[in-house]
Amino acid sequence: MRNLLYIVIQLLVIVMVAPLLNGIIKKIKAFSQKRKGAPIFQMYFDLYKLSRKSSVVSDVSSWIFKVTPYIVFATAVAAALLVPVSSLIAPEQIPGDFIMLVSILALGRFFIMITALDTASTFGGMGSSREAMISSLIEPSILVSLFTMGLVTKSTSLLPMMNVMKGIGFPLAHPGCITIFLALFTIIIAESSRIPVDDPATHLELTMVHEAMILEYSGRHLALMEYGAAIKQLTLITLLVNILIPHDQLIAITGIGAVVLSLTIYLIKVIGISIIIAIAEVSTVKFKLFSIPNLAAMSFILAFLGFLQYFVLGGCYVLF
Amino acid sequence: MVILAELKNKLTEEFSEDIYKRAEKSNELYLEVNPDKIVEICTYINIEQGYPLISMFANDEQSFCDKYAVYYVFADRERGVLLIIKTLVDPQEMKIRSITEKVHAAALYEREINDLFGIVPTGHPNPKRLVFHSNWPKEEFPLRKEFDLKQKLDFAQEEINFQKVTGEGVYEIPVGPVHAGIIEPGHFRFSVAGEPVINLEAQLYYVHKGIEKMCEGQSIEKCLYVSERISGDETFANSLAYCEAIEKIAEVQISYRAKYTRVVFAELERLTSHLGDLGGLCLDAAYGFATFQFRMMRGWAYGIADELCGMRFLRSVNKLGGVRKDFVEGKEAKLIAELKKIKTELDDTVKIIKAKSMFIDRVENTGILQNKIASDLNAVGPAGRASGLYFDVRKTFPYEAYDKLEFDIPKHYNGDISCRMNTKIEECFQAIELMIQALETMPDGKIFVPLNCVKPYRFAFGLTEAPRGENIHWVMTGKNNTIFRYKIRTPSFCNWPALCHAVKGNIVPDFPLINKSFNLSYAGNDL
Question: Does B505 touch chain A if contact means CB atoms closer than 8 Å?
């Protein structure tokens, strides 16, 4: 029963909130350009519109093309289930750990990459090769960050991790956590195809990474792809805020009220992070493609610094 | 003219037996030469004297001399002299000796003449069709006078061959002709090894409209409207070049008030065009803030245009013999205030973008157009001035009131995106200064001088500096106030091959940025 309730609440929150973040980021970007911008709920309307349209499928494509949108959406949702939005709604145990999380996301990415090759269009292959380059550079950084947190919390599973961090109170007061936070933030920027790694708003196929891979999609399939990307982005943000800025320890009341309060604080944190993402996007310019490894290296170094601090300093983590 | 005499003497010394006829008109020297010696003569002029080939065109002159003529236009930019070499081609033979091997800038012109007139350049290194590709029958040549515009042609089908680059891991990326966004059509064939571009071939002329043919036989007034519609964002520069040519033929001196008014409009067009280019450049680097700053300023500049003449794209401003109305009268003070507002905003924006190291990193040393390539291909305008070719028609062949106004030519040498961007930024400031100067010193007087009927078979050049660079129109009048031949050479025609060279060695995702830094017109090239 508890499990079922968790799945329902978790899915509702993630699926409902994910498109909102894109709306908020776009709105802030519009303000920086002296524009009013689209309503923050625009992505919901777009998804609704796309879901009602039929999909155009190239007749030279194989089953991979048709299956990929569902796999991408499913892997994003499955990944979302591993990262509880609030520890109060979580069951005793959630099967799977962060290694599984990274692998599930990689599965979705693998399918996007091969589907881009499937239609043999001009830009798909280019997008795939760039995505392969970026993700292979970013993945070590994710794993090192999460392993460090695993060392600190003595668990690879995300729920125990959250519970331990909750006990620390305010982890960002510790230098090790700050570097991990920055590393994860950079990863979110890269994984959700944002400036300076990729430009989600561009129309120039030759510069695209993520957009180039989904260029052939339309209608329902496109809706699933975009929804999947939005959910993946929110999952990563959830991972960041719930582990490094835990909030459930502050809630004194119990019962339904506590859950509502916890979710509200969660929402505020997520929106806060998306505002920071928007500011990062506004204040940067797209990198040269071959400068992206520098960003990945920076992220890895930050993660590795956090990792070293666990052994060298030790102290800041040995609070419990 | 001392300079012309000097030039003539030099050539006569070298090729006394091969020069048949001479004619001089103000700053244009026409020489009719022996077609068998054309390569030697052009090589002498281009390589030994260092005068670039700035235009080349053919003309069907069977109606008065039973032959086709090919004109090679060289320019002495330091002294403002045009040297036009003319050779006659026998209609039975229809062949000329290709000069491309020696004078590289001739490559595209000779292919164009081959397509439009059927005059074959023998010995051309790459005689691929240029204007017409796959669907136009091979034996139809529209610019011959006997070609009937109303006929229906068969649809030919032919494959387009692109330069093949082979090797391990080399593959081709076909892009276009239909692009994302509102862009004109053009096909780009990249040969790449991973991300670096080995070769780029641009296949243009998808919007060939036959403007030159359409104008033949039309009245000179009607062709003014056509010239305004050659390329949407160079309306004024094109119509101005056309007016210049016709006014030279009709031998009228237009009033100074009209000349100053034309300067104001020409600079306004330059300002809007450059602000648009700069905005586009920032957009392609995903620099949202700067993009919208430039777009806002361009909006203000369009507002000025709208207020002056009720038309943001400056159509119907020029008239043969002057301008259509006294557009600036009573608006000077307000205009100057508006221009100063743009200048302040531009100043602030430029300071911000130049302090943005990430942006500068994108534009510096990307898309370098080497000086040697630029001068061989006769790259013009801001692209040329960024690569060390410091010429500007406003200085070398002063027209309208430019010899009375003070301005500088931006000078850069590196030839990368950053240089082209800085050239355009500096030209924006110059354009604002020029407009303010022209408005402040504008003399009183009439705004237009009526034109009499023009005599048949007279010809003249009209040169202007369009926002994209040197713009050359050559007009030959026919009987009854009509056009016999109208040759348009826009700056884009010269700069497209330069763009293809600038891209080589860069990576694919930098192409849009390099392309935007040139920002060439498709309509103005395809004609």
Answer: no
Interface probe for B, chosen from A31, A129, A285, A292 (most Cβ of B below 10 Å), is A285
A93-107, A164-178, B190-204, B469-483: which range is least confident on average? A164-178
User: Across the interface, do B509 and A206 touch by the CB < 8 Å criterion?
Assistant: yes
Q: pLDDT tens-digit profile of B58-108?
A: 998 888 888 899 999 998 888 888 889 999 998 888 899 999 998 899 999
Closest Cα in chain A to B511: A206
Distance (Å) from the alpha carbon of B173 to chain A's nearest alpha carbon = 6
Averaged pLDDT of chain B:
89
| A2 burial via Cβ count (<10 Å: 0-12, 13-18, 19+) | exposed
B196 and chain A: CB distance < 8 Å anywhere? no
Contact: A126, B174; criterion CB under 8 Å: no
- Model confidence pLDDT, tens digit, residues A38-71: 999 999 999 999 999 999 998 888 999 999 999 9
CB within 8 Å: A285 and B510: no
Quick check: A6 and A89 in contact, CB under 8 A? yes
Contacts of A203 in chain B (CB under 8 A): 180-181
CA of A219, closest CA in chain B: separation in Å? 18
Q: How confident is the model at residue A303 (pLDDT cuts 50, 70, 90)?
A: very high
Q: What is the pTM of this model?
A: 0.91
Q: Report the alpha-carbon distance of residue A72 to residue A66 in Å, rounded.
A: 11
* Helix, coil or strand: residue A66: helix
Q: Is the pLDDT of residue A153 over 70?
A: yes
Q: Work out the average pLDDT over B44-53.
A: 87
Picking from A33, A201, A288, the nearest residue to B510 by CB comes out as A288
Chain segment B296-350, per-residue pLDDT in tens: 999 999 999 998 888 899 888 988 888 888 888 888 899 999 999 999 999 999 9
Q: How far apart are the first and last CA of chain A?
A: 32
- If you count them, how many residues does chain B have? 527
Say if B193 is an interface residue toward chain A (CB within 8 Å). no
Q: Kind and range of the H or E element at B319?
A: strand B318-319
Residue B363 has pLDDT above 70, yes or no: yes
Q: How many domains does chain A have?
A: 1
Q: Are A206 and B511 in contact (CB under 8 A)?
A: yes
- Domains, chain B, with CATH or none: 2-122 (3.30.460.80), 170-203 (no CATH), 211-526 (1.10.645.10)
**Domain region containing A149:** 2-317
Single-letter amino acid, residue A55: S
Report the residue of chain A nearest B172, measured CA to CA.
A122
A290 contacts in B (CB within 8 Å)?
195, 507
Q: A122–B174: do the CB atoms touch at under 8 Å?
A: yes
Sequence-distant (6+) residues with CB within 8 A of A95 are none
Q: What is the C-alpha separation between A16 and A6, in angstroms, rounded?
A: 15
Q: Tell me the backbone φ, ψ of residue B219, rounded to 5 degrees.
A: -70, 155
Q: Measure in Å the smallest separation between the Cα of A11 and chain B Cα atoms.
A: 34
Average pLDDT, chain A: 89
The pLDDT value recorded for residue A317 is 54
